[in-house]
Amino acid sequence: MNRAMIEIAVQCVPHDTADVVAHHARLQSRLSLTRCRAETYTDIGLLCARMPRLKTHLLRGMLSFDHLRLLARSADGIRPDDTVAAEKALIAVLTPRRDKQVMPGPRAMVKKILKAVHRIDALARPVDHTDPEPPPVSCAEMIGTTESGLATGTVEPPAGIDPRDCGTPTRRVSVDTYDPCSTAITATLPPEEAEEVIAVLDAVCREMSCSRADGLLHLVRGTADVSVTLNIYREINSEVAATSGGHWLDAVATDAFMERVTHLRIPGHDATDTYTPTRRMVEFLEGVYTSCTFPGCEVPAAKCDIDHVRRYNHEDPDSGGPTDTGNLHPLCRSHHLLKTLGWVDATKGSDGAVMWSSVDDGRTYVTEPTGPLAGFARTSFASRATRRYRTVREHNERRKAVRASQQAVLAAARRASTEEAPF
Hints:
The chain is built from 14 helices and eleven strands. It is mainly alpha-helical and 423 residues long. Among the domains are: 2-124; 271-376, no CATH class.
């Protein structure tokens, strides 16, 4: 079925001089499609015509229509000279690393494409809500200024525009008072800022044991005091970072978030003797996976349970699965229950991949980690040695600084004790 969609899309490729409206109307009537579906088939076909190697790869049939719809516009900003490099990058993103691997969900795929295209050309990065807004243009910039700095004219706001309604497609608040019994307040924000707002709002709800609506009122009235930690994941040599929700930021947005960083931490594998993983372990797992590891599930990892792949033995912990990051993964509540009831079984590879098997039909599927820390899901001896080296060095640097401070205080006290009294 997925292969057939590619073949249909190839047949929908128009001539360069064809009229857009007429072409889509022709597809609608011939294939009984909606206009939106006709446009999508055309975009997929144009992408295949531009990147023939990618078309051959897509004919393997691993992508659904939702995947293809998002993929179709991913090369719009690619320069002709970068087409080959972009095609290679897209194929790399869409190539499974192992047999029976399940493709990531559409949103997870888009995040990987954004990062891959950004590496080739930042200006070709597909349009996404994580793109920062352009800086606002002042009236003086629009109408120009004289050498003295005075504006050369006056600009009145457009008639009928309420300043309270001003905003952008990715950042605005709208108020709907149509219903006499209630008012709908809708906030539209870029994903990384929305993630921040939701984290604070949910923290208020937990603290006050209330609904989100009541929590929002507590925030507005200033009757709640909570502290929230937002995790930003960034490789040392990378100019971009990602949020714990898996939203990749460009260099400008990354710098804006990095200015707010209060603590730095080198993430890595960890373990604990208790059943419940530590907060540090949970944050590492959220950075590795970002979502539920069940095939096709996109529930955010922050809303998932942390499941022991090998069951934890409460009566004899030493004989059961350990509570370490190598034996843990995020599972949404419904799929966690499915695994607990024995309908599916899971095993975890050393590289973080989770192999799922179904009890009723015996089929197996593989999900790969897709988060910003996916490359750190596996600990090699080299990386462990590096982490141990850094840990020892940092410990001794702090120890040296403390000793130097103590010696300075002691020296000052000795000088004060040897000085003669002024009377």
